[in-house]
Amino acid sequence: MLGLKFLKRIQEKIYLKIWSQKQSVLAFFKFSSIVVSLFTILSIVFYYGFENTKESHRLFFSILHFSFSFYFVKYIISLLYSFHFLAYIRKTWFEFTVLMFWIINAFLFLFWGIDATQITAYYLKMPQLVDYSILAVQLFFFIVVGVEVSKIGVFFSKFNFGPSGMLLSAFLLMISIGTALLMMPEMTFHGISFIDALFTSTSASCVTGLTVVDVATGFTFKGKIIILILIQLGGINMLSFATFFAFMAHESYGLKYNSFMKNMLDVDKLSSTRSLLKNIVFFSFGLELVGAFLIFMYWQFSNFDSSMQHNIFYAIFHSVSAFNNAGISLWTDGLYDNFVRHSFFVQAVLMVLIFFGGLGFFAIQDMFALSSYRRRKKQPWKGLQLSTRIVLYTSLFLILAGSVVFYFLEYDKSMSNETSFAKVFHSVFQSVSSRTAGFSTVNFSLVTQPTLLFFIILMFIGASPGSTGGGIKTTTFYLLFKLSIATIIGKKHIESGRNSIPFSLIDKATTVFLFAITLIFVSTFLLSITEEGISFIDLLFEEVSAFATCGLSTGITSSLSPAGRIIIIVSMFVGRIGPLTLGIALSRKVMTNKYRYPNANIMVG
C-alpha cells in the first residue's frame, strides 16, 4: 500500500511538472507538424516528378523514416498530455495503427534485418504489395497534410475574405499547384509548355474537359494521376476536402468558421454543415467506387484487351471523370473510340454517374435521407423540398428535350451508320452528357448547326446548384422562366409549388444570367478576333462549352492560338466558381441608402 501511494505521488508530481509546459510543447509540435508534412510532400513530389537515381531514392526513404519518427514522438507526447491513454488511443486509432505497424517493421529490420512487408508479399505471392505499402505511406502523409492545411484554413478564415473570396483563392491555388506539377519532366512524354500546362490544370480543376494536349498520348501514368486528383478536388471542392479532414481530426472551430462553411455550402441550418460535408465526401467516393467496380467487372468479363491493372485504372479514372462531370477521357477520341463506342453498359454507368454528379449534393441528400424514407415510402415524391423538385423536373425535361432534338436532327447525319437502338441510346447519352459532362459518343465535327445551337442552350443552362457541373444552373433557368410567365400574364407574385418565390432570388437569377451572357459575348467577340480562320458557330460552341464547364468541342481546341487559349482558361475558371460568386468576391460592400427616389416610368419592349 505504501509503495502504491508513493508511486501515485510521483505520478502526480510528474503530471504537475509537465502540465505547466503543455501549451508551449503542443504549440511547438503543431507548428513542426505543418513544416514536416509539407517538407515530406515536397520530397514525394520531387521523387515522382524527376528521374530517380540511387542517391535520390536513398534520400527519399530517409526523409520518410525521419517523418515517421517525428510523428511517433509527437504521438507519444500527445498521448502523455492526454492523461487518458485508452480514450486517446481509441480516438486516434488510425494514427495508432499506422505508427505501430511502422515501429514493428523498423524494430524487425534494425535488429534482424527483416522487412515485414517483403515477407508478407512473399507468402501472399503478391510482389506488388511492397509498392502498394509505399503508396499507402505516401497517402498517409497526404491525409496528414490535409488535416494540417485545414488548420491553416481556420487561420485564414479570420481575415475578411468571405466565402466567395475563400472559394476563389482555393481554386487559384489548386490550379497553380496543378500547373507546376504537370510541368515536371516525369509527367509528360515530350514536355509541355506553361500555357498548355495551365490550360490542362484549369480544365481538370474546373472539371471542364477541354484539352489542348491529348491526355491519352501526351501524359505519362504519373501525369494522368495528377489530372485525376485535380478532377476529384475540383469536383467536390478542395475546401470541402480540407474541412472534412478537420472534422475527422475532432477539431472545434467555433461559430464563425461553421457559419463560413454554411454560407459556402448554401445550407439552411448551421447544424447541417458537418453532416452535409461528410455526406458529400462519402457519397462521392461511394458512387465513384460503385461505378468503377461495375465498369471494371464488365471489361474483365467481356475480355477487354488490356491487363487487370490497366482496366482498374481506366475504370477509376472514367468513373471519377463522369461523376465530377469533367468529361476527360484516356482515349484520344474519347468515348467515340472503337473500344468503347458501342459498350452500352459502360456508357449507361457513366450516364448515371453524370446525372447524379450534376444533380447537386443537397438534392441528393434530400432524396436519399434515411430519416424521411418511411414517410416517402408510399408517396415517393411527396415531402421533397421545393428546390429538389425543381432540380429533378427541370433536369428530366432538359434531358428529354435534348434526346428528342438530337435524335431527329442527327438521325441520318452524324448517326447515319448506327443501328436504331444505338441511335436512341446515343441521343439520350449526348443529352445527359452535353449539359455539363462533355463525353461524346459521336463525332461532333459532323454534327449539324441546328443541333449545335440547341446544345449551346443546354450547355448554357448546365447542371444544378451545389453540383459538380457548371452553367447558369437549372434553378436559375426555372426562376427566369417563371418570371417571364408571371410578367406575361400580369401576376405580381411568382409562385411555385404553393410557395411564393422572393424577389431577392429572382434578382440573383437575373444577375447570374446577365453576367453569363456578358462574359460569353465578350469572350466570343475576342475569340473572333484572335481566331480568324475558325467559323463563328464553332467559336461560340467552344466558348459556351468552356463557361458551362462542359468540355464538348467541334475539334478546334488544340488549334487555338495562345491568346485564344487564355480566353478559354478565363472562361473555364469563371464558369466553375460561378459568375455570381466571382462578382461578390471582387465587389465591395456598399451601404444601402436610407432614402428612396420617386418611381420612374420607362418604356420596355
- What spatial form do the alpha-carbon principal axes imply? globular
* Side-by-side strand order of the widest sheet: 1-2
Q: What is the number of E strands? A: 2
N-end to C-end Cα span = 97 Å
Stretches with pLDDT under 50, minimum 5 residues: 248-254
List its traits:
605 residues; mainly alpha; two-stranded antiparallel ribbon; 2 strands; globular
Summarize the structure.
This protein is mostly helical. It is 69% helix and 1% strand. It starts with a helix and ends in a 19-residue tail after the last helix.
Describe this structure in words.
This protein is an all-alpha fold and 605 residues long. Among the domains are: 28-156; 380-586, no CATH class. It contains 26 helices and 2 strands. A two-stranded antiparallel sheet has the order 1-2. α12 (238-248) packs across α14 (272-301), α14 crosses α15 and α15 runs parallel beside α16 (344-359).
Write the layout of secondary structure elements.
Elements: H1 2-19, H2 22-49, H3 54-82, H4 85-91, H5 93-112, H6 116-123, H7 129-156, H8 162-182, H9 194-205, H10 215-218, H11 221-236, H12 238-248, H13 254-265, H14 272-301, H15 308-323, H16 344-359, H17 361-367, H18 373-376, H19 386-410, H20 420-433, H21 449-461, H22 474-489, E1 495-496, E2 499-500, H23 503-530, H24 536-547, H25 562-577, H26 579-586
Antiparallel strand pairs: 1-2
Helix pairs in contact: 2-3, 2-7, 3-5, 7-12, 8-9, 8-11, 8-13, 8-26, 9-11, 9-25, 11-15, 12-14, 13-14, 14-15, 14-16, 15-16, 16-20, 17-19, 19-20, 19-21, 21-24, 22-23, 23-24, 23-25, 24-25, 25-26
